[in-house]
Design a protein that fits this description.
The structure is a homodimer of 364-residue chains.
Chain A (H helix, E strand, L loop, with lengths): L2 H18 L3 H5 L4 E7 L1 E7 L8 H15 L4 E6 L10 H7 L4 E4 L23 H10 L2 H10 L3 E8 L6 E3 L13 E3 L2 H9 L3 E3 L3 H10 L4 E2 L4 H7 L7 E3 L8 E7 H6 L2 H35 L3 E3 L3 H21 L1 H31 L1
Parallel strand pairs in A: 2-3, 2-4, 7-8, 7-9, 10-12
Antiparallel strand pairs in A: 4-11, 5-11, 6-9, 6-10
Helix pairs in contact in A: 3-11, 6-13, 7-12, 9-11, 12-13
């Protein structure tokens, strides 16, 4: 039976039951039914991504479809791409105030509100996606994130992960640490702060202006995400040196709700949103894996070559990360506390990753 | 409001509406309600694990709780540990025949029915968990698995992943390929077939007999899963050489339903089961990661040392895997077809894993 027909039939039976002056349970005898008169709820969710943006945008759309299906239509999430209802980077405030009910974005965007928020996206040279997820769930990460977001009337859940991001596209090869000196590179966040300590001049540019800036030499390099999203930007045509990365080793995306609104939802709807968000978080990671693999193959066919930074750059970056962490920790007690939790979990999990996934990927 | 109170209130309001001869919608005016008269369904699910078995067993119990919460109690899954309703390895047949509705186990257990089924658990020296999941979803793996299981009236979903398993516990160190010759090792599945080609004598033993056999020297080595489950078996006391692994690089566990039963469920219940299974699949992987890390720390505190097989063993194992694959492919057209799909996806995904996760884990 189609869903529409099922609803019609149920409604018709309901009317008959009422007319007869007795309940449906009485009419149907032994057939046990659960009467769930679930209040119909509609939630507005805005993203920081363009309409139908691959993986990040389409993933959220599938999430909304799943929530609707699981709730029998009683919970509808209307997804608004960036700048339709609120500007891309106004989603945090709009959800905090209750103008909208939820948003999909990345916690590093809100480091201006609290430097600690950047850490919930991950740390350069730090944990990979699987380790960050385990930290959130079993290492205290979620507790800290939810405590700090509660001050903004927000309830965050992980809502996707990019996996290890590429280091970026360079117009000239980087053969030594010295080659980074004075380089103008579009790179935001903690990665930008680390690069700055290696002599790079980090630039912020809107997405639509990066290609032209790179083509004209206004900038010398840019990072983006990974092959799947990078190939669409065409950077390979003007900055052919594609470097592997360490500045975003598993960026956590977020699906965050207005806390008061979420708390008022029924236990069913809360359970549906929790489960669907956790499903989305992992599905997006695996879709990135698949799409990056396919796009890498295409980029190679287009002649793109992959390079690794020299060892001296990696080592200098590790030192710079610790400097950035010390700096931020001195300025922000929240940053210090969240970093301490992350660092403690990293010390726990890394020895296992080293002898399992890392070892195996080297020998297979 | 507590769930119980909510149901009571709704029932009371429902009665009032019936008595007044009009619907609740009419009484409540503007408040829109969705009437979902979801049929109450109870499903019996048997596992191949003991009651409350860590991670694998407890994960399935949480899955059942989530399904109940999401469905507002209309979908209940009663979880039976092994040997309560059906023997541990009879769950496939019991679900196929409709004696029970679903099971949680591992596809390698059914290779006697079809050699290809072993591949859905993964391949020695093959893909890791994230790659296997991407293959299932985006590379044709699920299509093949569901096509082959449909012949048994079964509908499989992934229901967990162990991550990279350890190579096992050895009474003496393995310093050369020659040290494996004649070794009696408890190791099942394709891993056992590969080890046999390296000179090992693979033994099958019930879980309860392994420790004593190892202690008495009846066997020289055993593999199990990873630190979290291994530590409970006490193997470190009698076989102190703990080796890293390649024989089960990301074993897929399954949550499989009787197909006819699943097809008859409402679209809501189907969506709830699909989403909850996918959530479980990833949650179990991350719980293994966390628990393995914690147990490894304990094992090290107990003095356990970690060893890698010599390079000659790794290389001989890779060759042996290809021989086993050729052998099985010659005997089974299904094995050949599933392996071809896996191998094709491995060639696609490995170059990306190599420059992202694998590269990054080496330099961080």
């Amino acid at each position: 039976m189609k869903r529409r027909d099922f609803i019609k039939t149920a409604a018709a039976l309901g009317t008959a039951a009422t007319l007869g002056g007795c309940t449906r349970e009485q009419i149907e005898g032994k057939r046990a039914f659960h009467t769930s008169r679930q209040k119909r709820v509609k939630l507005k969710l805005a993203t920081s991504w363009p309409a139908h943006f691959p993986i990040m945008g389409t993933g959220v759309e599938r999430f909304a479809q799943r929530v609707k299906a699981m709730s029998g239509g009683s919970l509808e999430i209307k997804v608004y791409p960036k700048n339709i209802l609120v500007p891309a980077l106004a989603v945090f405030d709009a959800t905090s105030s209750g103008q909208i009910d939820a948003f999909h974005s990345g916690p590093y965007y809100w480091k201006g509100k609290n430097p600690a928020f950047a850490l919930f996206s991950g740390l350069p040279m730090g944990m990979v996606a699987s380790e960050l997820i385990a930290w959130m769930k079993y290492g205290g990460g979620y507790d800290l994130w939810r405590e700090l977001y509660a001050k903004y009337n927000l309830y965050p859940m992980m809502g996707g992960n990019t996996g290890v991001q590429m280091g970026g596209w360079f117009r000239k090869p980087i053969k030594s640490l010295g080659d980074l000196k004075g380089l103008k590179m579009r790179i935001p966040g903690l990665g930008g702060e680390v690069m700055a300590r290696l002599g790079v001049n980090p630039i912020l540019l809107p997405a639509g202006e990066i290609y032209t800036a790179l083509e004209r030499g206004t900038i010398d390099a840019t990072e983006w995400v990974g092959p799947a999203l990078d190939i669409r930007m065409g950077f390979y045509k003007v900055a052919p040196y594609y470097y592997t990365g360490w500045h975003e080793p598993g960026s956590v995306l977020e699906l965050t709700f207005n806390k008061a609104r979420f708390d008022k939802l029924s236990p069913e709807h809360q359970a549906i949103l929790q489960t669907a968000a956790d499903q989305l978080n992992n599905e997006m990671y695996h879709e990135f894996l698949d799409q990056n693999a396919r796009a890498l193959k295409k980029l190679k066919a287009l002649g793109v070559k992959i390079y690794n930074f020299p060892k001296a750059v990696d080592e200098a970056a590790k030192k710079a990360v610790m400097e950035v962490v010390a700096d931020q920790s001195a300025k922000s007690a929240d940053f210090k506390r969240v970093y301490a939790s992350m660092a403690s979990y990293y010390r726990l999990v890394k020895p296992w990753t080293d002898i399992s996934e890392a070892r195996y990927l080297n020998i297979r």
